[in-house]
Amino acid sequence: MNLNNDFEKLIENLPFFLQQNLRRHRYQDQMIEIILDLGRRPEARFTYGPEYLSQKIISWQDIDYVTKHLSKFSNENRAGIERTLHRISCIRNRQFLINGLTCRIGRSIFGTVSVIRDLLESEKSILILGKPGVGKTTIIREIARVLANEMEKRVIIIDTSNEIAGDSDIPHFGIGRARRMQVFKTELQHQVMIEAVENHMPQVIIIDEIGTELEVLAARTIAEKGVQLIGTTHGNCLENLIKNPPLSDLIGGIQYVTLSDEEAKRRGTQKSVLERKSYPAFEIIIEINHSHIWTIHEDVATSADSFLRRNSLIYQIRQFKLDEKIQIQCDQFSPSQNSLIKSICLTEEVPLNITKYWVQVNVVKTNKLLNGFKKNVVIYSYSISNNFLKEVFSKIDTKFTLTNDFRKASLIIGLTKNLQQNLKLNQFAKEKKIPIYAFQQISIYQLIKFIKIIT
After folding, report:
1. Does the domain at residues 361-454 carry the CATH identifier 3.40.50?
2. Would you tell me which CATH number, out of the four given (2.40.128.90, 3.30.460.20, 3.40.50.80, 3.30.450.90), belongs to the domain 2-104?
3. How much is the pTM?
């Protein structure tokens, strides 16, 4: 993995007493931003946490020195350094004077998107989810270069805040042959998105930070014109996107639907349920959980439907390390209150933790674990009536052994709220690698479906 961040060009614009410390710092590659606040010590923020850079207090003269070396601040209180990817944001007081600076270190990284190369070649639209500062902009910058240079596509970048291609009329080399359209005002981003399609015949349009209803509508319009979209938005996971009204249209939109009595009974749900309205603008979603661990939803329509119907979701986890080895595994989880399986995979890498809202489930390991139980499954039920279980087992003609001694159990089932409080049981299950299935609420339909999964 190659990296270029023009770090020296940023240091040259900072006060002299900081320059030497920064040049000698051994963790430059892990530095995210530098904070200069009036009356406080200068601080650097790293991937591992914050650290003071000097004992000296920042003065008005220090802040004035930095601002005079930068380009003019925009209406969004952002400025940049010519031909670099660094971004400097300011904080102002009531007199509109600058009394704080956040110097975000911009990096052009080569090799990161090798983990999703196959997804780029599929020509499907991709949405990248992640919280602020996780590296979404860095990723789409590299995607732009790969699509334009290596796949020879016509790529247009809608660069609203000049973060993708730098604060200059000449774009940074990190985007390769991709073209960049700047946006005069942030609120006009959706117009520039449509203009790019109408005027410049792109095969791919790249948009950073989709956040308003107009931008979502523009993205849907572009997708319907057959142009591949690569976009980013804030959020930790698919659930955040579904529950965010302005952004839910990116995955097709959500609406209430009234089911017939038969259909509601078949699904085991209420008559009024949430359903997806239309086809998603983005066909693939990538959740940036960590800089080196990404969660991939290769079929957004199926994933969204499964989430809304409280079914198990299948997704991929892709991980790449400094030794450039890429690991891909297929996982499954049940996302909500009516979920079935809350915890199965008990390994040293994935410890038991039923207190989480949902936990990841490794399908391959789970199937291997459950196959060993099929001949003689001994169930210990915690907070679920044994008579209720026997009634369900008799209806589906399934042979299970119920035990009152959890030490003899092959698996444990119970209600989440009760299981969370029994630390002794959790610890024993973890040590003996006994899977725990936790139900938010129990019904005959859920239990029958659960039994079909494990038999």
Report:
1. yes
2. 3.30.450.90
3. 0.68
